[in-house]
Amino acid sequence: MAFLSLLPSRTLLTHIFHSALTGGLLFLCLIVNVTIIASPTPLTILITSTAESLPALPADDPPGPQEASYLQQPLKAKAAEGEDVVFPCYLKSDVDEGAVEKVKWYVQSLEGRRNVLQGNETVEDVFAGRVFLSGDLSEGDLSMTLRNISLEDRGLYLCAFISTNSTILQGGGTKLSIRKGLGER
């Protein structure tokens, strides 16, 4: 496990978030401490391999109203056609259950970006009846379940949350690989 501490300029920080929002994401598991202030802010990135388990989040004081920590894991998920997959996504601070509409999931694939969920509402027909938020929002668990997966569901699944101060927090994504079902050859 490697820890990197960076003191990026505001330009670099803007570029990182812009890249994350436009789909140019790193295939990393990130813990990002974001503080909104007028000066440059420290950015801490935790890099871990998929073979290692992530440490538990510290039980320190919850972040203030303009500060939050965000985590999405794991980097990869594998399943066979027809199975259900849970995509874990966690926000360190507690989330008001009324904030469900502030949760968004989308998938980046070779065909481009497709919106999966906005709140607990299916955005595209291809996901209708197969996808829902399955975590406990009051615990900061923004996890999503996708049922009866098919080969067309391959891609990088990303979780985003819009905080009360309109900051968009986004995970590093989970790459879904799918193998053909056992009954097909």
Kindly describe this structure.
With 185 residues, the protein is mostly beta strands. It has a single domain (2-53, 68-179), classed as Immunoglobulin-like (Sandwich). It has 1 helix and 15 strands. The strands form 4 sheets. Strands 5, 8, 9, 10, 13, 14 and 15 form a 7-stranded mixed sheet that branches. It has a 3-stranded antiparallel sheet with strand order 2-4-7, with no helix packed on it. It has a 3-stranded antiparallel sheet with strand order 6-12-11, with no helix packed on it. A hairpin with a 5-residue loop joins strand 13 (155-162) and strand 14. It is globular. The model is unreliable at 1-67 (pLDDT under 50).
CATH superfamily heading: Immunoglobulins
CATH class: Mainly Beta
Helical percentage: under 10%
Q: Which regions are unreliable across 5 or more consecutive residues at pLDDT < 50?
A: 1-67
Rg calc: 17 Å
How many domains would you count in the coordinates? 1
Structural class: mainly beta
Shape: globular
Keywords: Disulfide bond, Glycoprotein, Immunoglobulin domain, Membrane, Signal, Transmembrane, Transmembrane helix
Transmembrane segments: 12-38
Domain Ig-like: 65-169
Organism: Cyprinus carpio (Common carp)
